[in-house]
Amino acid sequence: MGESQNATCMFTSTRNARTIAWAGGPVLHHNETTWTPDTQTDWDPSPHCAVFFQNQMICKKPLNFILYKMPDSITIRPVNKSIFLEGKLCQLRCDITNVAPAQSLIVRWYHGNRTIEPSVREPLRLVDCPQDSNTSCEPGAIRTPVNVFASAGFLLNRTHHEAALSCEAILELGPLGPRLSPTVISRAVSFSVHYKPVINTTKLPRVVPLFRGYPEELVCEADGQPPPVIYWSSGVENPSWESRDNITVFKAGRYTCKAVNDVASDVHTVEVVPKEDYLPLIAGFVAATVVVISAIFLFIYSIYYKNTKMRRYSLKNPKLSGHNANVAHNGWDLQFPMTKLS
């Protein structure tokens, strides 16, 4: 995989050694100490290093190696084209093309950027392998590049609706390989998941107060796929259903919202109870209290003003005098003598 690799055959001791060669099958390469795999002609060679001695003895040592090849492509698709329902298993298939060795392959599944574990996982199988034959469809110890696929079953829920699902092929290179194994990931696939409606009870509580003179709007919203149709009814016996999202109520009673789609339905009943609006009464009480307090304040102030600010005088034998106080009378200035009483 990647750059070409080679192996070198060397003497551990040159005593009585005549020549060294690489043998790979029936071909013997004399005096060649380096061997390079030829993946164009043979993906499963069995090379061994051979040393020939003067006494006609031969020492052979096989080369243990693994040839790796990353996939040419990887794709994901649903196995069935039927409608996908919440709570049911969905079978996905991940096709991996021209990879070697397939037994070193690991397949991971993703929901967006998050790794997910399938509910049912099947082993890798060879593409185009007849299922009813006695031949095993698992790649086993095949060293040559092959086309394989992995199948997995996922228990669907509403979060899978229009979600991006993908698969990733990881080629494990063994303990002597790099720390991070090479990977290739498929393009994401998405599909529609049908699930039952659920009414949003946050916007539609079970008890709604109704104040006199103020109509109340009841809003019924539901999440479902396909998008549900909303129906309203009032009363308990023989209710008549009306298709609309919101209704405006003017009187107390029991009102029922029903959300329906192809999967199932959800029903939510609202009890509209009468409530008295005490705000006008409170406002009137506050205004009356202010008036009473103001009247009491004015009464107390008038008494206080009489006793502290006004003085009492008595007119006796009024005589014109220039020393006493003046009192205006019909526009004329008349002077009267006054005696202070207190």
Structure commentary:
The N and C termini lie far apart (125 Å). The protein has one helix at 279-309; strands at residues 7-8, 17-24, 27-30, 34-35, 47-53, 58-62, 73-78, 84-85, 89-99, 105-111, 114-116, 120-121, 125-126, 146-155, 165-171, 183-185, 193-199, 207-211, 216-219, 222-225, 229-234, 242-243, 246-249, 253-260, 265-275, 313-315, 326-329, 332-335, 338-340. The protein is elongated, with a radius of gyration of 50 Å. With 342 residues, it is mainly beta. The strands form 9 sheets. Strands 7, 9, 12, 13 and 14 form a 5-stranded antiparallel beta sheet that branches. A 5-stranded mixed beta sheet has the order 18-25-24-21-22, with no helix packed on it. A 4-stranded antiparallel beta sheet has the order 3-2-5-6, with no helix packed on it. The chain crosses the membrane at residues 278-304. This is Ig-like domain-containing protein. It comes from Hippocampus comes. InterPro entries: ICAM_VCAM, Ig-like_dom, Ig-like_dom_sf, Ig-like_fold.
